[in-house]
Amino acid sequence: MHKDDSGREIRKRAEAIAQQSSVPGVSADDKLVYELKVHQIELEMQNNELRESQEELQRSRRLYELLFDWAPLPYFAFNAQGGIIEANQAGVSLLQTERKHLDQKPFVVFLSEEHHAAFFDHIRRVLEGASRQSAEVQIKTRGGAPFWVRLESRRQDTGKGITSCLTAVIDVSDRKRIEDDLILAWEDAVSADRAKSAFLANMSHEIRTPMNGILSMSEVALGGQGLSDELERYLRTIHSSAASLISILDDVLDLSRIETDRRTIEKEPFRPAELIHTVEAMFGPNMTEKQLSLHVDVIGPLSDILVGDRNRLRQILVNLLSNAITYSNAGEITLRVTESEVSGFVRELTFEVHDTGPGIDPAEQQRIRELFKQNSNDADQRYEGAGLGLAISRRLASLLGGQLYFETDQETGTRFFCSVPLELPGEGEAIPDIERAVTSSEDGADRRILVAEDNAINLLVIRTVLEKENYEVISVSNGQDALDTLARTRFDLVLMDISMPGMDGITATQTIRSHAEGLYDPAIPVIAISAHSMKGDRERFLTAGMNDYISKPFVRETVRSVIKRHLRSAH
């Protein structure tokens, strides 16, 4: 009620009470006595109301103090300097002290030193603004280890122009501990991932080095003259098997891509008939050893050229045929191929691999289906070793836009089916003869190439390839020898291995590019040639000053084309 309205109400009540005890007379004295009596009653009523208001205010204050003091959450009131004006019982307990020791005591004495500035900044922001502010600081007490709290504060006006900071203190130690555990777990995971990547890089390098000798020398041998049909067939089988192994290693060694399905799917033209012939030739010796026969049945016409990922298809077929050979002890294995039209420019190839083994019983069928779903190799001992190949094949088929499934019968054996969509080539799109890619090149006479390579097999491969192109080849085994040789002799190009004893290829290349005394030609083409083939390696080599990068194992045509390109650009 408004003050004036309240005054009028009290006046009416006072007059009513006065009239009950006396009637105002007509004389001036009677009216004065009456007014004095009314005024006295008014004062008594106002005093009663004031007393009741004070009692109500005191009850409210006692209730507020009781709620504040016994609230389960610690509360503090701070002045502008961060001193403690008031603290409830929970706050006193939090600081492990007594209330009498807290009056005007700076709160920062209970904080870790590195959080003093954050606390004062928090107080300033609260008193300068009207909105609620939050901050996290670390409290330390004499009775225990430091722990984390969150300050939730707002400005509080205490009258006479004085403001304070009313703060609730929330213990967030458990959350911080979980965050710290997650950070440590993340750091451990990053460390493990780095260790895995380093291991994979080293394994890739060590495996690719001997594979380079097998793949490259078989290719060089295929380019020779006077080979018998039988010997040529054996060499092609070696070359194709080595290429297939490299394709498989690319998936097995790069586990990060296997785990995240981030493999690169190529779209290149290839001949389906050539792919089938290559796989058939690859398994000839295995069939003979186990007294099995492989029957290839192409049902209907096949397109001469299709566009897709030939290497992934070959990997799927290799896995399926290897699985069939493993679990067949006699009889025949059939590879059946059909092509169907999906649209005017898309065809679907279906490969069926049928073995004459004992079939798969229902329990084992369920294990394989679960393996397909979970990519697990937790198969029955009978299928131990085949689980990873089947799982990878299933995932590769899915990445190619196709599917892989199986049917089995204990009397007729097991059939695995793989269907993938492939595109027809565009107009004028052609494919080179992959099996006979070894051709002669233009004469390399009068061109001198320095090869820095410490592995004897790799050096033999490179020297054989280059000398067949009539290049003059001089070799060294480390980066320092390469620099010394370049200082004495003029060369047209350098093939630089990355990992060598003493000075490595990157350091040697950087020295060539930055040397200011004129000992080396800073513009000479330097080609990295290395078994390092993990993500980012190429960019690392180019950043070091190398002109190009050839990954081991390489084919003869790759070496020829890269060298010719950089020799042309350098002259």
Structural class: alpha/beta
By CATH, the topology of the largest domain is Heat Shock Protein 90
Biggest pleated sheet = 5 strands, antiparallel
- Give me the CATH architecture of the largest domain, please: 2-Layer Sandwich
- Shape, please? elongated
How are the strands of the biggest sheet laid out side by side? 2-1-5-4-3
Percent helix, as a range, is 40-55%
Residue-averaged pLDDT: 79
Report how far apart the termini are: 103 Å
Estimate nothing, just give the exact number of structural domains: 4
Question: Class of the largest domain, according to the CATH hierarchy?
Answer: Alpha Beta
Share in β-strands:
15-25%
Within CATH, the superfamily of the largest domain carries the name: Histidine kinase-like ATPase, C-terminal domain
Low-pLDDT parts are: 374-386, 432-441
Oligomer: single chain
